[in-house]
Amino acid sequence: MSERSCPDCDVLMEQTNVTAEGVGDLYIETERDGGILDRLGVGYQAPLSAYLCPECGFTQLYADLSE
């Protein structure tokens, strides 16, 4: 994944992990009925990557659309 900058602080964000108790990796669930993700070629699930701003704590999630 490429480098990401915080939209508020304009500093380099750090890749991090987002977890929930008893849950493994986070995924985005996609609709397969001709929705936007279907048109982009995303399968039923796409893994998510998290980025955290070390200055303000802003966190962004990005779907890995390459799989």
Beta-strand residue fraction: 25-35%
Number of domains: 1
Q: What is the structural class?
A: mainly beta
Question: With helices defined by DSSP (H or I, 4 residues minimum), what is the helix count?
Answer: 1
Terminal-residue CA separation: 12 Å
Structure notes:
- It comes from Haloarcula quadrata.
- This is Small CPxCG-related zinc finger protein.
- The chain is mainly β.
- It has one domain (14-63).
- 6% of the residues lie in helices and 28% in strands.
- The chain has one helix at residues 36-39; strands at residues 14-16, 27-29, 45-52, 59-63.
- Strands 1, 2, 3 and 4 form a 4-stranded antiparallel sheet that branches.
Give a short synopsis of this structure.
With 67 residues, this protein is mainly beta. It contains one helix and four strands; from the N terminus they run ββαββ. It comes from Haloarcula quadrata.
Write the layout of secondary structure elements.
Blueprint: E1 14-16, E2 27-29, H1 36-39, E3 45-52, E4 59-63
Antiparallel strand pairs: 1-3, 2-3, 3-4
Protein name: Small CPxCG-related zinc finger protein
Organism: Haloarcula quadrata
